[in-house]
Amino acid sequence: MDCLTGLVPEQQGYKFPFYCVAASLILTALVTLFLNMDITIVKSDQSWRKEMSWLLTWPAAGYYAILIVNGMCFATRANFYPIFLEEQLKVTDEWWGYLVTIGAIASIILQLIAGILHGYIGIGSMNLIILCSVISALKSIIVAFFEPVTPDSTPWGLIIIQWMDLQVTQYVGVIGYASKIAPSHLRAAALGISTSCLFVIGIRKKDKRMNTHPNFINDEA
To answer: How many domains does one find in the chain?
Structure first.
């Protein structure tokens, strides 16, 4: 209660966005129950160094170089995009929660679409990776031209460009290309390296202000 006016301030609720994300994750888990995968264990007598020699080929080197660049771009968007929305576009905490929810739902839907394009339409794995990378980069460019959001308006532009963040969607192409460059029994290793390139390398390139900004948690400890 406000000690001067005696009024109870309206509190923002964040349950609905989290419920939407939880429902999306549960739906994804239910879909995986119907997947039928046959896994064959392969044992090799080759040395570890010889088994991993495929990493020294040009297709593998170029592929992982692209993923490292994508990972650094992802880190830039993940770190600075929320700050830009808050400080430059004046997006409220409530709308930020809605935008995060929309982005999570869009990511799931776009992954399904990417799977159809890759598996049935015939778009190549690397083509899909590059396409997703270009569209994700365009999101960072387009948002720079947006005007600040007024308190009573709906940020339709921000809602639309949430569908342009394809960092996770490109993993459909990542799985396909990793399956081509690595031996069948080392696909898990190839995907593990891919994940490190995308979501680990470059992720700690943060501005020092991140440690105290309310939108971020200090993970230096």
So the answer is: 1
